[in-house]
């Protein structure tokens, strides 16, 4: 079992997601970058669960998927509410919490 | 990986070697496609293209899960991520309007990229460490193959990890209640506001 490759791919996807979160201004694309980071961790957990012959990694990945689904739903609802009140999707312009 | 390539170079191949070579090259290609698709997610100016690249990325990851003996997780990945979550993303993009983002290069972006490049190098340092524990698990490839991936995960989930499973269901319930209250009660009629 070659764990170096899965480690490299996972690190690359995590870094790309982190870059996307830092440099993009659209909150939807920032959310997609967060999804990339979560997915890279899932990939690492699954790959190492095969290498270590243990199912704990897959269970962890399943629970991470649950958390990611809940997080996406709540985050998109918040983005939708912000857009309804402000009509603007640039995160640089969203600087007050009070509607 | 490299000893297989050396054997292939020396042309002393048997069936297992050829099979391993094909499998590893397929894993390599799919992994690189996943990396390229994730680059597409963050580099496309229009969010709709980012979402489409993300769907491709998730399908690549599901393929990789298949190669790592996680058939159940691959199915969950396709159904939950590439299905439900991405449909939600596309729906929100269609609702909000997919405006292109204007490109500008600022010092902060360069600083962010430098920071993450440093982070990437730190993550790659794990390559030099390797395993700190010996490989001693029960769920070997044959053990999973006798019961099937979904059943193996189910038995593990309902015996050793029951409380996290129940907490996850509770989390989903809280999220459902939360978005209903967010979408229903916090709505105010749209009013003109002065630019902040």
Number of strands of chain B: 0
The number of helical runs of chain B is: 8
Number of domains of chain B: 2
The secondary-structure element order of chain B is: HHHHHHHH
Assign the CATH topology of the largest domain in chain B: Four Helix Bundle (Hemerythrin (Met), subunit A)
Q: Which structural class do the helices and strands of chain A define?
A: mainly alpha
Low-pLDDT parts of chain B are none
Describe the structure.
The complex is a heterodimer of chains A (99) and B (196). By secondary structure, chain A is mainly α. Chain A is 78% helix and 0% strand. In chain A, helix 1 (3-23) runs antiparallel to helix 2. In chain B, helix 1 (2-9) packs across helix 2 and helix 2 packs antiparallel against helix 3 (47-67). The model of chain B has no long low-confidence stretch (mean pLDDT 83). Chain B has two domains: 1-100, Four Helix Bundle (Hemerythrin (Met), subunit A) (Up-down Bundle); 140-188, no CATH class. Chain B is extended, with a radius of gyration of 23 Å. Chain B has eight helices and no strands. Chain B has helices spanning 2-9, 15-43, 47-67, 71-96, 107-124, 141-147, 149-159, 162-185. The longest helix of chain B has 29 residues, at 15-43. Classes of the chains: A mainly alpha (99), B mainly alpha (196). At the A-B interface, helix 1, helix 2 and helix 3 of A face helix 2, helix 3, helix 4, helix 5 and helix 7 of B.
Short description:
With 99 residues, chain A is an all-alpha fold. Chain A is built from three helices and no strands.
Properties at a glance:
heterodimer; A: 99 residues; mainly alpha; Helix Hairpins; 3 helices; 0% strand; B: 196 residues; Four Helix Bundle (Hemerythrin (Met), subunit A); 2 domains; 8 helices; extended
Write the layout of secondary structure elements.
The complex is a heterodimer of chains A (99) and B (196).
Chain A: H1 3-23, H2 27-51, H3 56-86
Chain B: H1 2-9, H2 15-43, H3 47-67, H4 71-96, H5 107-124, H6 141-147, H7 149-159, H8 162-185
Helix pairs in contact in B: 1-2, 2-3, 3-4
């Amino acid at each position: 079992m070659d764990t170096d490759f899965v480690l490299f791919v996972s690190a690359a996807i995590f870094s790309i997601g982190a870059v996307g979160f830092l440099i993009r201004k659209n909150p939807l694309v920032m959310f997609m970058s967060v999804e990339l980071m979560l997915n890279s961790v899932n990939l690492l957990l699954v790959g190492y669960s095969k290498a270590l012959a243990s199912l704990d990694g897959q269970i962890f990945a399943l629970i991470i998927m649950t958390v990611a689904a809940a997080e996406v739903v709540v985050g998109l609802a918040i983005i939708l509410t912000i857009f309804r009140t402000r009509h603007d999707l640039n995160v640089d312009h969203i600087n007050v919490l009070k509607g | 990986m490299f000893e297989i390539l050396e054997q292939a170079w020396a042309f002393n191949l048997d069936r297992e070697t050829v099979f391993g070579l094909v499998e590893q090259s397929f894993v390599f290609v799919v992994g690189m496609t996943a990396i390229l698709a994730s680059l597409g997610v963050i580099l496309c100016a229009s969010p709709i293209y980012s979402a489409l690249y993300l769907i491709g990325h998730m399908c690549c990851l599901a393929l990789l899960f298949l190669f790592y003996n996680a058939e159940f997780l691959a199915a969950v990945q396709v159904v939950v991520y590439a299905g439900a979550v991405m449909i939600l993303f596309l729906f929100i993009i269609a609702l909000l309007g997919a405006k292109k983002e204007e490109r500008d290069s600022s010092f902060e972006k360069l600083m962010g990229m430098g920071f993450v490049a440093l982070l990437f190098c730190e993550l790659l340092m794990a390559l030099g460490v390797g395993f700190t524990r010996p490989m001693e698990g029960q769920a070997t490839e044959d053990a999973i193959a006798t019961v099937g991936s979904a059943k193996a995960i189910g038995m593990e989930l309902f015996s050793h990890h029951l409380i996290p499973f129940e907490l996850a269901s509770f989390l989903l319930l809280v999220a459902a209640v939360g978005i209903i209250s967010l979408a229903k009660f916090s709505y105010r009629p749209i009013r003109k506001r002065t630019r902040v």
